[in-house]
Amino acid sequence: MKPTDTSDPEYFHKVVDCQYACPAHTPVPDYIRLIAQGRYTDAYMMNRRSNVFPGILGRVCDRPCEPACRRTRVEDEPVAICRLKRVAADHRDEVKHLIPEGGTPNGKKIALIGAGPASLTVANDLAPLGYDCTVFEALEKPGGLMISNIPSFRLPEKVLDDEIGYILDMGVTLKTGHRINSMKDLLDEGYDAVFVGSGAPKGKDLNIDGREEAADNIHIGIEWLESVAFDHIETIGKRVLIIGVGNTAMDCCRTSLRLGADDVKVMARKPRDFFKASPWELKDAEHENVEIVVNHSPKAFVTENGKLVGMTFELMEYDIDETGRITGTRVTGETTIPCDDVILAIGQDNAFPWIERDIGLEFDKWEAPIVDKTTFESTRKGVFFGGDAAFGPLNIIWAVEHGHQAAISIHKHCQGEDITDRLPRGLNLETVKMGPNEWSYSNDYDPEHRREMPEVDLAERFKTLDIEVELGFTPEQIKTEVERCLNCDIQTVFSAPACTECDACIDICPVNCLTIAPNGEEADLRTRLAAPALNTDQALYVSEDLPLTDRIMIKDEDLCLHCGLCAERCPTGAWDMQKSTIFLPHADDELAAAASRRAAE
User: Fold this and answer.
1) pLDDT, tens digit, for every residue of 179-196?
2) What is the C-alpha separation between 249 and 266, in angstroms, rounded?
3) Those residues with Cβ within 8 angstroms of residue 149's Cβ, 6 or more apart along the chain or in another chain
C-alpha cells in the first residue's frame, strides 16, 4: 500500500465519525469539549455555524451522528450527541449580539418559497452578505414541518420562535399566509434568484375498499398534525389506528393520546427490523402505552351506516435471509380491528402543481424536479431547490445542509461566477501537547454508560399538548455525558523518520490498533494486523517505510480510541496528538475568497 495522504481533508474528516456522518458536518467533539468547560454560549455558536438551529435540532434531529459514534466500538450506546446540543442551547447566555446582522444591500433580490429549515438556512447565509431575501410561506407561521408536523410536546414553540427570529432579525422579509400559485408569475417579478424549499407537502393516501364511505374519520397524517398545530382539530376518537411506522406515525400516535384517545395502535405491514421510525421514537411511543402491531397489511375500511367502525388487515408472514432481506411473503389469514379514527402516515410526496411545465424546469417520471446534487440548481438557470422539495423527505439537518450549499450557488449566480467553481474543504492540524505526557484535552476513558433523559411523569404529560416531555440533562448528567466523548478529532499523527521500532506504542495500545509489519496489498495487510481489520469502511493508516527495517506502521482507524497512550509512551516523539479542524466553506467564505483574489490582482 502507498503511504496515507493525511493532507487530504477527507482523511481525518472521515476519522471523526460523528462529524462525517452529520450532513451539516457539525464539529461534535469540539462543542462537547466546550460544554465540558461550561462554555455553553461558545458551544451554541459553534453549533449554529453549521446546523443553524441548535435548540431545535437538540430536540428533534434524526441523529445520523449517533450510530456512527466511536463510543459504540467499546460499548452499546453512543454519546448523547443530540441531547448535548440541547444542553448548549438551554444553558447559553443571550446570543443575539453574536449573530450577524443584515449586510449592506448589494441590490440583489432573492425569493424563497416556504419558511422551512432549507429556506431559512439560505436566508441565514445570504442576508448578512447584503442580499434582499423575501420568504413566502403559505401557513400563518414560519417553520415549515418544524411547526406544522412536529408536536409542541417535542419541540416548544418558543424554541422555534427564538431561532427563527434570529434569522428574520437579519432584515429578512417574511410573508406568511402567502401561497405561491404560479412560478411563472413569481419569476416575472424580477428576482435575481429563486429558492424552492416548500417541502414534501402531499401525504400519501390509502385507496382500499371503504375509503370513500369512511372519509370523515380517515386523516392524512401530515395534514392532521398541521390541523392540530394550528388548533383546527382538538379531539379524536377513543380508538385510533395509525397506519405506517415512520417518525410521522410516532408523532400521530402520541398526539392522539393527548387529544383524548384511550386505545392507540400503530399498524405495521412488516416486522420491526423494517420500521423507518427512529428507535428512540418507537421507545417513546411504547413508553406512553402505544401498541405497535406487526405483520398486518391493510385490506379494507369497515363501515356501518356510513360510519367507520374498524379496519380489516391481512395477516402476513415473511421469509428473511441471513442478510436481512425479505425473500418470501405469504398471507396467512385476516382480522378486523375496531376503531373510531384512522390516521394514514405512509409517506409523503413532492407536489408542484404551481410550477408551470413550459418555463424550462424539467421534472422526472415521478414529477420531482431535476436538481443538481452539488449546486442544487434546477434545469432553469437561477432557480434552486433544497430540503424535501429537492429530493423527497429526509430530515431537518439535511435541509440545513442543502440550504448552505444552495446559498453558495445563489451567491455565485448573482455575482456572475461559475456556480460549480467552489472552494475546496481544508484541514488544519495543531498539536495538543502541553508536556511530555500531558494533553490539553481530557483523554481518560470514562466507563460510564449513556445518561437517561429525565422526562415528565406519564400522569402529567397528557394534560395539555404543549407540555414538553423531555426535561433536559441535569448538571450532574451533563458532567458525566461529556466525558464519554472519545475526542475523535484529536488525531494520532505519526512521523516515520523518528520511529526506532521499539514497539512501545504497540505494547501500550489498549485496543491493538497498531502493527509494524512488511508492506503488502490491503486485503493481505488487513489479515496480518495485531487485530484483524474487518471494517473495510474505515481506512488503514499506512506510514512511509520505517528507517531501520523498511517495514511500515499500520493503524486501524476503526479501532483507535484517540487515547494518546502511544504518544505518551513513544521515547522519540514519533507519535503526537494533534487536533484536526476541517474547513467547510459557506457563502461568506466564498465572498471573502473572491475579495482576496481581487485584492491580489
Assistant:
1) 999 999 999 999 999 999
2) 7
3) 222, 225, 226, 229, 248, 251
How many Å apart are CA 334 and CA 372, to the nearest integer? 46
Q: How confident is the model at residue 447 (pLDDT cuts 50, 70, 90)?
A: confident
- What mean pLDDT is predicted for residues 317-333? 93
Strands 552-556 and 540-542: antiparallel
313 phi/psi in degrees, rounded to 5: -125, 145
Categorize the per-residue pLDDT at 348 as very low, low, confident or very high, splitting at 50, 70 and 90. confident
CA nearest 378: which of 183, 115, 189? 183
Q: What is the largest CA-CA distance in the chain?
A: 90
Q: How far apart are CA 528 and CA 518, in angstroms?
A: 9
Looking at residues 105-123, what average pLDDT do you find? 97
pLDDT confidence bin for 54, thresholds 50/70/90? very high
Phi and psi dihedrals of 479, rounded to 5? -60, -40
Q: Give how far Cα 403 sits from Cα of 198, 387, 586, Å.
A: 12, 7, 10
For 81, 155, 243, the CA distances from 246, given in Å and listed in that order, are: 22, 18, 9
DSSP assigned state of 52: S
DSSP annotation of 356: -
Helices (H), 26-105: 28-36, 40-51, 54-60, 65-68, 81-91
Mean pLDDT for the chain overall: 94
Question: 52 is written with which cell numbers?
Answer: 443553524
Residue with cell 406487526: 294
* Per-residue pLDDT tens digits for 251-267: 999 999 999 999 999 99
> Average of pLDDT values for 390-416?
96
Cα angle 76, 78, 79 (rounded to 5 degrees) comes to 140
Could you please report the per-residue DSSP string of 520-583? --HHHHTTSSSS----TTSPEEEPPPPTTTS-EEEEETTT-----HHHHH-SS--EEEEEEEEE
Q: How far apart are the first and last CA of the chain?
A: 42
Question: Cα–Cα distance between 371 and 391 in angstroms, integer?
Answer: 8
